[in-house]
Structures are given as structure tokens and as C-alpha cells.
Specification:
Elements (H helix, E strand, L loop, with lengths): L2 H50 L2
């Protein structure tokens, strides 16, 4: 391997590594909000059933 190939490989790693990690962090946050939204929806359905039976 010459220095140019090594430079290209290192450049690719430096460019794509932050993109991959930021995408992973975004998906984790999105999953957390989806869990909260699902829990709120279940709670809302429970309240609706509770008050509709009275």
C-alpha cells in the first residue's frame, strides 16, 4: 500500500465514522420517543375505557 491509498482509507474513516455514530444516536432517541408515545397512547386508552364505563 502506498501513502495515497492509506490517506484515502483514513479520510473515508474520518468522514463516515461521525455520520454512522450520529445516525445511531438519532435512532436511539427516536426509539425512546416511540416508547413514550406508545405508553401515553396506552394510558389514554385506559383512561377512555375507565371513564366510558362510568
Amino acid at each position: 500500500m502506498n501513502y495515497l491509498e492509506l490517506l484515502v482509507i483514513i479520510s473515508c474513516i474520518l468522514v463516515f465514522a461521525p455520520l454512522i455514530t450520529s445516525t445511531d444516536i438519532y435512532h436511539r432517541k427516536l426509539f425512546k420517543y416511540e416508547k413514550k408515545a406508545r405508553a401515553m397512547k396506552l394510558l389514554n386508552n385506559s383512561f377512555n375505557e375507565l371513564f366510558s364505563n362510568q
